Amino acid sequence: MGSRKVEKEMNAEYKKEAEKSYLVLAAEEAEHEFSTEMLLENKIQGILSLEKRSFNGEINFYYDITGKKSLKSHIQNEPLREQEIRIILQKVYCTIGELYNYFLDAKGIIIDTEYIFAEKEDYFFCYYPSEKQALIEEKAAGFAEQLTEAVDYEDEAAVQMVFQLYKKLKQ
């Protein structure tokens, strides 16, 4: 599962400051400046808001997750049903379309339950500007695998949808 390897090496950290909660990722030394500037200067639909902070020579990306819950923690308590899976997949598709509107490479989006955050019935993705990111197709295959583990097996339509997606992406 090479697509998840990149995300797991990110060493995510969670911080709470006053009224805000953040997912913090260390920026790479040779970060992709254009992507970072686009994220800092624009509110991109479906992408978590980003702040770039420097301290003691280290640069970190702070993603605002205030009021949001990770998909990973959600599925630990409640398996995914068909409608929710449809909404998540549609949101992935729409968010990737938004990225292209800002000339951002889709491989920067992290499609992993740990880095997808829900607020009510809306989903937000972490965009990590890096040249080392896996291709979106590889990430989608890894995400489909995660969905097979998170699906509500009592919901036949959800199971069929997830396994068809998994099969198609693994070809």
Q: Could you spell the SSE succession in H and E letters?
A: HEEHEEEHHEEEHH
Q: Name the structural class.
A: alpha+beta
What is the terminal-to-terminal distance? 14 Å
Characterize the largest beta sheet: strand count, sense, and whether it forms a barrel.
4 strands, antiparallel
What oligomerization state is this entry in? single chain
DSSP strand count: 8
Low-confidence stretches: 1-8
**Percent in strands:** 15-25%
Give a structural overview.
A hairpin with a 2-residue loop joins strand 3 and strand 4 (58-64). It contains six helices and eight strands; from the N terminus they run H-E-E-H-E-E-E-H-H-E-E-E-H-H. It has helices spanning 2-8, 33-41, 71-77, 82-101, 136-150, 156-170, and strands spanning 13-17, 20-26, 50-55, 58-64, 69-70, 109-110, 116-119, 122-127. It has a four-stranded antiparallel β-sheet, with helices on one face. The two termini are 14 Å apart. By secondary structure, it is an alpha+beta fold.
